[in-house]
Amino acid sequence: MIRTGEQYMDALRAPREVYVGGERIEDVTTYAPFRKPIESYARLYDRKHDPEHQDVLSYVADDGERYDISFMVPKSKEDLKRKGRAFNNFSAASYGCLGRGPESMAALVAGLSESCDWFEQWGEGHGQKITDFCNHVRDNDLFVTHALGNPQSDRSKSSSEQDNPYLHLRMKEETPEGLIIRGAKQLATAAPFADEVLVFPNGRQFGPSDEAYAMCFAIPADTPGLKILCREPLITDDQLNVYDHPLSSRYEEIDALLVFDDVLVPWDRVFFHNNLFAANNMRFMTAVAAFSGHLSIHRAIVRSGLAVATAMALTESAGTNNFPNVGEIIGRITAMHKAAEALLFRCEEDPRVDENGTYYPNSDALTAHGLLFPDWYVATLEAIKRTGAAGLMLTPMAADFHGEAGDFAETYFAGVNGMIGSDRVQIGKLAWDLAGSPIGQRLAHYERFYIGEPMFVANFYSKLAQLDEGKNLLALVIAEGKECMETWTTSAGE
User: Fold this and answer.
1) What is the distance between the alpha carbons of residues 96 and 142, in angstroms, rounded to a whole number?
2) How many structural domains is the chain composed of?
3) CATH code for the domain in which residue 462 is found
4) Cα 269 from Cα 237, distance rounded (Å)
5) Which of 73, 243, 350, 369 has an alpha carbon within 20 to 30 A of 249's alpha carbon?
6) Does residue 29 fall inside a structural domain?
7) How far apart are CA 438 and CA 159, in angstroms?
């Protein structure tokens, strides 16, 4: 089935332990900093029922039921591109600002589903557990969050070497009912808004003595003993109108630390445990990263396009767009955006096909985008700041245009070619939300780290990137050099 926005919000009203500033939030749907993001997620659910978008965002499976297309495992290039069109549509609905919307983790869940055979090797029935969980999420159109990292305590020590053995999430004991676990995981984006929590390691986190920490499981977000400790909200109650805060007012994805206080994980939700190899290689040996990365590249490009267009609009509103120095700045960030689009094109036009006939986005293009885009995006935000200049620091509020000083605001903030002050200021508000606001800065930081520590990702890519043509040419040049040396030696001997 496909849930409505109202059904999604009703489910969030079930009791759960969510804390902000040391206080428990009894109903996340009524807490002011959460209300707008929840409404934004609800609109994504409703969008799948909209006749204009339904056939793009959903599909009818072999069982005759309609599901979110994010759950579909692509079996052709057209399937892959069809999912891409849906990911673009989902991303455009939030201007690329919801990195962990329901569709994001649905794409990841599709990667889990495709990898059930990989999980089966870690225990009889593990593959079926994965299948059952994925079907449960798909059939009920659930919102999943995940937690991948350990608390950044002493990063020079492994999990088992920490002073507190339960600082990082670990197994406390095995019981007939399941695992009892204690400790913490981060960084669970959108955790207060999710139905389910999926925990697994992101990359090679664990050393030789860390078996008790090496696990993968899923539980409902309202499981007893699970505590969701949220960071400080980046938006306040008086910043919730879309004129003054066009993005911040709606897309505050709360990040959280998940604390497991002797939580029982039933055996049917334990996908592996006490398994260092599985924990350290899950990311690299399953479809999880590729399937979720496919959505991420669409989301990033949507927001990048908005940012470049905003920079252009800023310069046009001020009449600086024909200045050569400004033109160079805009031209360079436009080129970066188009380069990102080119990588996306290769992702879908040159896919990888595995032995099961499953289509994956091109891994070289996907990883290259993940490594390059953060710097490109930061350069775009810097361009907004440079071209917006001092004007970004002086923008009146919506109320100023309706108060006693409204005429002054319209007069002195007007743009070129008859642009009224309230229209020009609106562009400036969007520019600041992207490049200068706390939400904008969080989004930029998110781009840099959401796929993992850039150093490790780059190191991994350096070993796996396909460079056959370059390597062949290198071998040819070296062979020609050796031939020259041999000829030289022979000639000298004569």
Assistant:
1) 21
2) 1
3) 1.20.140.10
4) 38
5) 369
6) no
7) 32
